[in-house]
Write a structure and sequence with these properties.
Low-confidence stretches: 1-30
Distance between the termini: 182 Å
Structural class: alpha+beta
Mean pLDDT: 82
CATH topology of the largest domain: 60s Ribosomal Protein L30, Chain: A
Shape: rod-shaped
Number of helices: 8
CATH architecture of the largest domain: 2-Layer Sandwich
Radius of gyration: 61 Å
C-alpha cells in the first residue's frame, strides 16, 4: 500500500480520537453542581441569621440548620434523590429555627408587656398614694395657714382699731387747732377779712397764722384735697366782686403752694357776693360775708369727718 492510501485510512480515525478527547476535556471542565433548592434554603437561613432580634433567640437551632444546609449544598453526583432529601432536611431545620425564633420573640414580648403593665399599675398605685398623702398635707397646711391668718387678722384688727382711735384723736386735735367745722362737704375752715385789706386781694403780713396751721394739717394728711372759695359782700358791682373774690382765693392758693403744698391738691374759685351767710344791711353782716372758705375734702375711703361736739 502506498503512502497516499495510508494517509486516507488514518484521517477518519484521527478525527474520531480528537472528538473523543474534546468531549472528555469538556466533561472534566464542567464544575459539579449543588442540588436544586439548596440556594433557596441558604437564602432563608441567611435571612434568619441577619435578623439580630430573632437570631439570638435560637442559636442552637441556627447551628443545626447551618450544618444541614452545608450538607445540602454538597454535590451528590447522579444520586438526585439523596440531594433532594438533604435539601428537604435542611429546609425543615431552617423552618423549625425560624418558627421557634418567632415564638420565643412573641413570648418575650408578652413577658415584657406584662412587666410593663405591672410596673404601670405599681406606679399608678404609688401616684395615688402620693396624691392622697399630698392632699392630707395640703389640708393640714391649709388649716394651719387659716389658723395663723385668723390669729394675724385678730391681731391686726386690734392694732388697726388702736391705730384708728389714735388717728381719730390726733385728727380731732388738728381740727380743734384749725377751729374747722365738720360738714358733709368736709372740714370747712372760714378765714375772715383779717387776711385782706378792704378792696385788696393780697394777704396782710402777719395775718397768715391760720394758714400756717392749715399747711401743717395738709402735710399730716397728704390724701386730702382742698377747695378754696372767695366770697365778698354786696358793696360794689357784681363783676368787681366776682373778680375780687377770685383773686383772694388765688392768693390763698399761692400761699399754700409756696409752703410746699402741691398745686394738684388745691382748687380756687371766686363766688363773688352770691353766697352770703349774713345780711349785708349791717357792717357786722358785711364783715361776715367778706371771707375765704377752705374746704378740706374727705378722701373717697376716709373715715367720716370727726365731729367738733
Amino acid at each position: 500500500m502506498n503512502t497516499l492510501n495510508i494517509n486516507h485510512v488514518r484521517a477518519p480515525r484521527m478525527l474520531a480520537l480528537a472528538s473523543a478527547v474534546t468531549f472528555a476535556v469538556a466533561g472534566c471542565a464542567t464544575a459539579p453542581q449543588s442540588p436544586d433548592g439548596s440556594a433557596d434554603v441558604r437564602s432563608k437561613l441567611s435571612a434568619l441569621q441577619s435578623n439580630s432580634t430573632l437570631a439570638k433567640k435560637v442559636p442552637v437551632e441556627i447551628r443545626e440548620a447551618e450544618a444541614a444546609v452545608v450538607i445540602a449544598e454538597a454535590t451528590v453526583g447522579k444520586d438526585v434523590a439523596l440531594g433532594e432529601h438533604r435539601v428537604y432536611m435542611a429546609d425543615h431545620l431552617v423552618e423549625i429555627a425560624t418558627a421557634k425564633a418567632a415564638t420565643r420573640n412573641a413570648e418575650d414580648q408578652r413577658a415584657m408587656l406584662s412587666q410593663k403593665r405591672d410596673e404601670a399599675r405599681l406606679a399608678a398605685r404609688t401616684r395615688e398614694a402620693d396624691k392622697a398623702h399630698r392632699a392630707t398635707e395640703l389640708a393640714q397646711s391649709k388649716t394651719e395657714a387659716e389658723r395663723a391668718l385668723a390669729v394675724a387678722a385678730a391681731a391686726k384688727a386690734s392694732s388697726n382699731a388702736a391705730e384708728a382711735a389714735a388717728n381719730a384723736k390726733e385728727m380731732q386735735r388738728q381740727i380743734d387747732v384749725l377751729q374747722a367745722e365738720a360738714t358733709d362737704r368736709g372740714l370747712v375752715l372760714t378765714l375772715g377779712d383779717v387776711l385782706f385789706a378792704t378792696g385788696r386781694s393780697d394777704l396782710k403780713s402777719g395775718g397768715t397764722n391760720t394758714l400756717d396751721k392749715l399747711v401743717v394739717f395738709l402735710n399730716e394728711y397728704p390724701g386730702r384735697t382742698v377747695a378754696i372759695e372767695g366770697h365778698t359782700d354786696d358793696v360794689g358791682s357784681l363783676d368787681m366782686n366776682q373778680i375780687l373774690s377770685q383773686h383772694r382765693a388765688d392768693s390763698v392758693r399761692s400761699y399754700l403752694m409756696q409752703k410746699g403744698i402741691q398745686s394738684v391738691r388745691l382748687a380756687a374759685s371766686g363766688m363773688g357776693e352770691t353766697r352770703p351767710i349774713a345780711e349785708n344791711s349791717s357792717e357786722s353782716g358785711r364783715q361776715q360775708n367778706r371771707r375765704v372758705e377752705v374746704i378740706i375734702k374727705n378722701p373717697p375711703s376716709a373715715i367720716p369727718a370727726a365731729s367738733t361736739n
